[in-house]
Design a protein that fits this description.
- The N and C termini lie far apart (about 45 Å).
- This protein folds into two domains: about 60 residues, 434 Repressor (Amino-terminal Domain), CATH 1.10.260; about 70 residues, no CATH class.
- It is mainly alpha-helical.
- The protein is elongated and about 55 Å long.
- About 60% of the residues lie in helices and about 0% in strands.
- The chain is built from eleven helices and no strands.
């Protein structure tokens, strides 16, 4: 999955570095200035054809332009700053991004929280007490099977 915000920043960086205005770049790509603006804001991504043209104009590879070689872990104090929310949530759910869930869980929307919890449940992973304490009542009910495992495990450890 692409981080649209990072890709947009990269397009803007190379556009400025190559001394193009948004209008000029738009004209070269046969798109509107608004399309270029949406790309740079991470609200949309260029088509494959436009990506090919951009890599040629900027003299960079696809990997560079699409930030595929960059693995910048987000700031735990603000997971989503400078990143697409869906990208971060997907990386966490896929296990590609390790975070201290109890410490960052408050930053997720209710839908994102359920995505993460569903991923944990689907994988058969167990939650710990620190995360459980931060769940809403409905989230605790959803994770009941995981909680029962947690309680039994802790009881045996005593």
């Amino acid at each position: 999955m692409l981080d649209c915000i990072a890709v947009g920043k990269k397009i803007q960086e190379y556009r400025i570095k190559n001394k193009y205005h948004q209008d000029q770049l738009a004209e070269l790509l046969y798109v509107s200035r608004q399309a270029v603006s949406r790309w740079e804001l991470g609200q949309a991504v260029p088509t494959i054809d436009n990506l090919i043209t951009l890599t040629r104009l900027f003299g960079v590879s696809f990997e560079e332009l699409l930030c595929l070689n960059e693995e910048k872990d987000p700031d735990p104090q603000n997971l989503f700053r400078g990143h697409n929310r869906e990208y971060i949530v997907r990386r966490i759910c896929d296990g590609d991004l390790k975070v201290d869930l109890p410490e960052v869980f408050w930053q997720f929307s209710s839908e994102e929280r359920m995505q993460v919890l569903s991923s944990i449940k689907r994988k058969g992973e167990k939650i710990d007490g620190a995360l459980y304490d931060r769940l809403s009542t409905s989230e605790q009910v959803f994770m009941r099977d995981n909680l029962n495992f947690f309680r039994k495990k802790n009881a045996r450890d005593l």
